[in-house]
Amino acid sequence: xxxxxxxxxxxxxxxxxxxxxxxxxxxxxxxxxxxxxxxxxxxxxxxxxxxxxxxxxxxxxxxxxxxxxxxxxxxxxxxxxxxxxxxxxxxxxxxxxxxxxxxxxxxxxxxxxxxxxxxxxxxxxxxxxxxxxxxxxxxxxxxxxxxxxxxxxxxxxxxxxxxxxxxxxxxxxxxxxxxxxxxxxxxxxxxxxxxxxxxxxxxxxxxxxxxxxxxxxxxxxxxxxxxxxxxxxxxxxxxxxxxxxxxxxxxxxxxxxxxxxxxxxxxxxxxxxxxxxxxxxxxxxxxxxxxxxxxxxxxxxxxxxxxxxxxxxxxxxxxxxxxxxxxxxxxxxxxxxxxxxxxxxxxxxxxxxxxxxxxxxxxxxxxxxxxxxxx
Length: 375
Ligand SMILES: Cc1ncc(COP(=O)(O)O)c(C=O)c1O
Known about the structure:
Elements: H1 11-21, E1 25-26, H2 38-47, H3 62-76, H4 82-85, E2 86-89, H5 91-103, E3 109-114, H6 120-126, E4 130-135, H7 144-150, E5 155-161, H8 173-185, E6 190-194, E7 219-224, H9 225-228, E8 237-240, H10 243-256, H11 262-271, H12 280-295, E9 301-302, E10 310-314, H13 323-332, E11 336-337, E12 339-340, E13 353-357, H14 362-373
Parallel strand pairs: 1-11, 3-4, 3-5, 5-6, 6-7
Antiparallel strand pairs: 2-8, 7-8, 9-10, 10-13, 12-13
């Protein structure tokens, strides 16, 4: 008996393994390959010598929680009650798992928007919830008619992901306003807003769900220090939710992990006030622009990229193979690993679009683009 009979090894592990075996350049899994801020290393080295090695308080290091509240105030002009509304988690993944486990009961329907990040559906299923997968439109933006028709009195939650993995698209004000109206019209509906790429947007500014005061009592936001500070391996993130929901979320958190890495929390508490997260967009915009210009001569059709560190591309001019087959060939024959986007769709539908991660140093991007332009 399996509780998750349809779940295998995630595509990220599969492609990274194939990339290593084939000695290919890995633009598949979303992780940076450049050094982290030396200031962060220095802080870590200093902190590890201090008395920071025992359990942190269950919701998180109080100094870190205060700094997170400051970050949300300065970024979104939202004032939180730090003692009640913030929970430090072992990455966004644990935050998502904990929130869904706490809030979804057997038979509750949860809307997810495909292509969707792969941890949502299994987590809903483990809670006895029913995932309702609605396809984003051909531009990877919400199809509100389809979403609205899917909402019923059984719908307990909608999970949104903006900026969006894998497409790199971001929602504009009209999408966010429509989301707000949807939540206001359906009093039973909660929104789990996965904003792990919140600080990685380019020409268009990210509009956070934090900015919508009228839905704060229904809103759980998910953030990731891994994405913001290039430290995906630390597995550090946080949730924000109103106290009424957070009380339930904390009940699960205390038996899921109790509290998360005390050293990392102490380091981040010192680091946060010293950095300007608003510079991150420009940092990645330069990488996006470099990758796009290097790829301009290729036969790939590059799709719009408004945010995140992912560039999607159509390969119809090169091959009619399925995106999974194409990514395998790309890795083993041409030496560059990418991610097929069909695996993010519940029905496996294949738009012949693949995803490259450009969170890489310039040399890696140049080498990869050279191989890709030769196809
Ligand atoms: C959309 C999305 N949500 C959540 C996560 C998980 O973040 P973390 O590494 O902080 O658990 C990722 C990581 O790739 C992601 O892309």
